[in-house]
Write a structure and sequence with these properties.
mainly alpha
């Protein structure tokens, strides 16, 4: 998770998410840096719109939060398949740090 947090920190600071920058951020925290994980992270994020990915994650989290009212069973099934689609889309990045 440290690697992903480092990438998010760099993105929020409007700095490029590069191997060198991720290593600097992790080193600054005192964490041990695994060069292979850094390479995998940077490669996985290449071409990814991080801002859009964060927005999608927020929408998924809101949809998964318990609601005050019970929803019909059909609606729950539709939301579950949408949540599953979101989970599958992010599974590639998550598997890097399993």
């Amino acid at each position: 998770m440290d690697y992903v947090y480092g990438a998010l920190l760099l993105h929020s600071a409007k700095q490029p998410v590069s191997e060198e920058n991720v290593k600097k951020v992790l080193s600054a925290t005192g964490a041990a840096v695994d060069d292979l994980k850094v390479k995998q992270l940077v490669a996985a994020l290449e071409g990814v719109d991080i801002e859009e990915a964060v927005k999608q994650a927020a929408v998924t989290a809101v949809a998964a939060a318990p609601a005050g009212e019970a929803k019909p069973a059909e609606a729950a099934v539709d939301e579950k398949s949408e949540a599953e689609k979101e989970a599958e889309a992010s599974a590639g990045l998550a598997s890097l740090f399993g």
